[in-house]
Amino acid sequence: MTCYDRRDLGLLLLRLGTGGVLAAHGAQKLFGWFGGHGLEGTGQFMESIGYVPGKLSAMAAGLAETGGGTLLALGLATPAAGAAAAGGMAGAAAVHVPNGFFAQEGGYEHAAILGLTAAGLAVTGPGRLSLDHALGHVLDRGWMVPAALGVTAAATTVVVGARSRRLRRKTQGEQETLFEE
Fold first, then answer.
1. Global pTM?
2. Of 22, 29, 85, 171, which one is least surrounded by beta carbons within 10 A?
3. Please, are residues 48 and 61 in contact by the beta-carbon 8 Å criterion?
């Protein structure tokens, strides 16, 4: 009989908690569950905060959260799951940065902790109480961690950077309009 240690139980709890929260938030975006607005409503919101095209952005965020969260909870393809969730949370944090750190002020605290936990799980691995372990870690190889995090970091940099440039141009255009009046 295999005896699981505290590390395995701790990783299971982290995966279930973080993965569950991420999956629920993604389901709000994709399906409108749990009081969410689904793809249409979330797409409109994404457009309003500079993620264009909005519906595609909503789908990408929803898939990163739902897919990454579900896979993290199961402990399956942990490097890719953690990286995808971390990338989604980096995009969310970028929206909240102007409001400061604390969530009570609309800050990036919640997105940051979910993203950091997901990235930490990608690096640490899922532990023995996971599907990755049961399947012999075929989707959880050492080389997959830097590959998944690197690809996600590059894609997130491009997406968040494009949003920032778009918002900067919009702000400059509004300022020019004010000076003309």
1. 0.90
2. 171
3. no
